[in-house]
Amino acid sequence: MTATVTREQRYRREHPCPICHGWESQARGKGLRCTGYLAEDGTAAFCSREESDVWSESAQCWVHKIEGNALPPPVRIKRIRRDEIPADALEGPSEGLGTLVATYEYQDVDGSVLFQALRYALPGGKKTFRQRRPIAWDAEGAPTRWARNLEGIRLVPYRLPEIVETAADDLAVFVVEGEKDVETLRSLGLVATCNPMGAGKWQETYAEYLTSRTCYLIPDNDEAGRRHMKEVQASLIAAGARAIMVAIGTLGEKGDVTDWVAAGGTTAQLAKMCAVEEERYERARLRRVVVEQMTVAELREQRYEDVRWIIPGILPEGSTLFAGKPKVGKSWLALDMALAVARGGTLFDGNLRIEQGDVLYLALEDTFRRLKSRIERLARDPHPGDANLTLRIVSPKLGDGGLDLIEEYCITHARARAIFVDTLGVFRGAPGKNSGGYLEDYAIFQTLKPIADLYNVAFVFVTHTRKSGAGEGGDMFDAVLGSTAQTGGTDTTMILDRDKDGKVTLYYRGRDVEEDKVRLVWDDEATKWLLSPDDARNPLHPTRQHFLDVLADAGPLTPAQLAERTGQKPGTTRSTLKRMLESGQLVKRADCYEVPGNTRENANNRTRPTPGMF
């Protein structure tokens, strides 16, 4: 009587033949397929592979092939688990996985093997991984048999013995995504580790081995890699480690540290990147120390850093709302500001000196063609600093990945100074039907505050003012389109306004900025905004000239003394002296201001910017 073979007895990928490790659904003609089956009681195996018709020491059974419909008598074999395979079964092509190219051993603290990760190369440059644990050992403790699972195994970080051995020396540990990257860094003489099974598989217990250590986290250059390292960073910080993110900005899409080293990256370059990120990490750590209360006496003893200015006296770090009516020229001014920061140049025809840094400009209502035309008119000649300005014309919405995009830019650009968003409406997206009005608008800017504080950058959001303006006798800053939460939720507000006589003024005020204004004129030849001749910041302004004349004759004076001699208000005198000091027209010694050189001729020379002054 012919026996019926059930589907459960047939060899499948999940339960392959224990003799040849093939199964029925594998491709024909590849020398891999096995159409045999297990005996119903699991004590006999039938294999259809002709080359397997020999005694198998590893499987401890006689192997028979099937010829036609005639079945050979079943042969008793040692009962084995279906997921147990010989130690050499994964050497080379196996289970259709491709070619085994690397075996990574995960060891316990004492060096004993806990499990292995096996890397297979697949067609098309792809890869896959499998894990196995030892279930039998020889007399010397070397594994001889393996189970293709990690049941009952304690998972540990890769290269755990090295992590433990170097703890006393307080060596930094590099945390990467995969074992290949660990081996790359070890070849450079560095201590490195990763968690088993790749991105998204980090466990809190791994952080216990890195408590109190300095860890540099290098993410792969893709969304999964960055998300993974953020999870690792949070876990390590919670465990008491110093977890410093070091993103390599030159990596290609999906690139990793191994690709970077292969392209010529060196230990010295990596050390420099780590030093920069560590400094930023320390500054951020100090800012995270929140003191909830102190006495006035204690407050007087505190020493705080001065406000960091992106545009001196006008644009500080933090969030800024830059508003104006359509087509008034605010995008031209915003782009000119971005170029000035990227180049480390000047603004308003040399009257404000700008510290150089990296800038991200989201021109969400423009095309690259229009941006190219504007930049070539604003700055006709190329400049090395142009490489510091990154332009994007497409971005995810703020609540749908836009915030991550901005934070990623700050992480990967150690010298980030400013992010311009033109316009806020496009970046934010249309408010929902159940929009919360004031509270929702306020919450938008509060989500950006931690990033601005952490990375010392300025966010500049370009937006519109109402067509009706602020109304007769109203506050200019009430003209901003949207709820008052937009001006209340940001640190600084700037408004570019053209009055009925055609005069243009940049108004600004904020938490760290005294309320003031700059009068501007559009220069068709230079294609940019310049200081108006009647603006107090203009080196040729009559008030400045008067101050220079008085100081040249009288010598050093305090602001109060100068105000008395010139008849100016004390507040106006102090603010004008501050601007003249910033532009280099005056010097300050103790509480007194004076003209450099203290001669009438020198004073007159100071009324005009000289080449190279700024």
Task: Describe the model.
The chain is α/β, with parallel strands linked by helices. It folds into 5 domains: 1-82, no CATH class; 84-154, no CATH class; 164-288, Dna Topoisomerase Vi A Subunit, Chain: A, domain 2, CATH 3.40.1360; 309-531, P-loop containing nucleotide triphosphate hydrolases (Rossmann fold), CATH 3.40.50; 542-605, Orthogonal Bundle (Arc Repressor Mutant, subunit A), CATH 1.10.10.10. The chain has a 9-stranded mixed β-sheet with strand order 20-19-21-22-16-23-24-25-26, with helices on both faces. Strand 1 and strand 2 (45-46) form a beta hairpin.
Strand adjacency order, main sheet: 20-19-21-22-16-23-24-25-26
Q: What is the CATH T-level topology of the largest domain?
A: Rossmann fold
The secondary structure category is alpha/beta
Count structural domains. 5
Shape: elongated
Number of strands: 28
Number of helices: 17
CATH superfamily of the largest domain: P-loop containing nucleotide triphosphate hydrolases
Task: Please name the CATH architecture of the largest domain.
Answer: 3-Layer(aba) Sandwich
Average of the residue pLDDT scores: 80
Radius of gyration: 35 Å
Our measurement of the CA-to-CA distance between the termini, rounded to an integer number of angstroms, reads 102 Å
Query: CATH top level of the largest domain?
Result: Alpha Beta
Question: Tell me about the biggest sheet?
Answer: 9 strands, mixed
- Beta fraction: 15-25%
Helix residue percentage: 25-40%
Q: Which runs of at least 5 residues are low in confidence (pLDDT < 50)?
A: 50-95, 599-614
